[in-house]
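Escalated from tier 1: zinc ion holo job.
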Amino acid sequence: MPLLKLESNFQNVIPQNHARSHTYMDALAIYSLQKLWKNYYYASGIGFSDFSLKGNFIQDPAHFELLLFDCFSTSGLRLISAGGEGDRNDKIEFIADNPIAQKYLHVCIRKEINCGVCDKCLRTLLALDAANKLDNFREVFDIDAYLKIRNQAYIYCHDKAAIPHNAPLYARTYKILYERHKNFFDSITPATKRMFKAK
Ligand SMILES: [Zn+2]
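Tier 2 regenerated the structure:
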């Protein structure tokens, strides 16, 4: 199928916090081309088993996109959250050996090439690390740069996994890495935790 690229100055007119608005903005993009679709399969942000309405005014709408997409659907266009039967680690493992993903995977919320230091790049790199698939993605990530900050990234993962709302994004990666590097994670103190933040 031909690739369609959609651009908008929406953010310039009404600045949005990406993490709190991305599902709504994506629905807006889908509806702006609604004559092209009957059913639109949207890559789920959070596994179905982590559905939650808690803190829905201030948290990531991916937690309740199953409900949102049902509300947004009309008789002419049905929005479907797809792939939520697995979590993000399942998805990483699913694509890790795919040459197309290795060449084109783009997750960054800051730049057109993966910056490697924003929350989403780090989350993906940590999951690739947990899956032992880092080397497969040297074409789209600076893996050597990640390896240089890997200890800090592990501390970042440790802190993120401790926040209940982040559990669907970090807990399973943390569990795998913890079992692999128990001594390192057990040595993290409140002082070391403050040394690193995603940009
Ligand atoms: Zn990034």
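The chain has two domains: 10-82, 88-193.
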